[in-house]
From TrEMBL:
E.C. code: 4.2.1.51
Key words, A-Z: Amino-acid biosynthesis, Aromatic amino acid biosynthesis, Lyase, Phenylalanine biosynthesis
InterPro entries, per the entry: ACT-like_dom_sf, ACT_dom, Preph_deHydtase
Transmembrane portions of the chain: none
Domain ACT: 193-269
Gene transcribed to yield this protein: pheA
Catalytic activity: prephenate + H(+) = 3-phenylpyruvate + CO2 + H2O
Record keyword GTP-binding present: no
Pfam family membership, one: PDT
Listed pathway(s): Amino-acid biosynthesis; L-phenylalanine biosynthesis; phenylpyruvate from prephenate: step 1/1
Catalytic EC class: lyase
Domain Prephenate dehydratase: 2-180
Name of the protein in question: Prephenate dehydratase
GO MF annotation terms: prephenate dehydratase activity
Amino acid sequence: MKIGYLGPQGTFSEEASFRYFSDATIKRIPFPTFLDIFEAVQEGEIDQGIVPIENSIEGTVSVVLDGLQIYSDVFIQGEMILDIEQHLLVLENVELETLKEIWSHPQPLAQCRNFIRNLNVKTRSFDSTVAAAHELIRSQNKSVGVIGTSWAAEKLRLHMLASNIHDFPENHTRFVIVRKGEYVSEDAKKTMLLITPSEEHPGVLVNILNVFSALELNLTWLESRPTKKRLGEYQFFMKIEEGLPSERMQKAVRILALYGHSVRVLGSY
Ligand SMILES: O=C(O)C(=O)C[C@]1(C(=O)O)C=C[C@@H](O)C=C1
């Protein structure tokens, strides 16, 4: 089985793939961006992909929601939570005072925003933490620090100038496992939905939320993304702590459809 992850080797995404897929026959394939993973899943080039969807400090990884919006044959078949530790990596003999720039993926840059602000340096975004580390090694730039994993420090022989630099002690990222084709597990405990309201009118979100509340369905995640058609028009991503096969969930989906809302089941696992 082929699994796609955000490469190159040594990213948090690769670590998540090792935690979730323990089978030794799994072939892990690195991709440069999250949307490349979605595309490869949709094209059938890989069987599954693992992508981060939200972080406890920085919140939603919006490009992953866009992937779910755009690639309509791609569904969620599971999730896992990874503890995240961010470290400051530099070349040999570099001091904190000499740093002028910090490089990383946008998510780690945001998870360490206060730390970076105190350094009074510029930031530069890369496709992944490890892509930033490779560029540091290539450029041999002693005024640059990279935020990344302890794997990168060890394997790429970078010096760890500061450890656990994320702004809040609790730092966890939720990853979802995506595949081609609808996925509803019989003993599912969670459901992810993408709801497009029938039309914009006052109270439309309350109308949707009331359906879940009336059926005592526990909503644990709600995120809105623009439809990208008109300013102020949104779609809602929701996570419900109940499997789709349950009577209550079936009822909720039926009622939402009766109200004219479009409901796409992104997966139930
Ligand atoms: O750059 C990496 O190492 C990644 O795997 C990406 C990523 C992310 O996009 O959120 C994954 C988990 C962490 O939250 C930080 C970075």
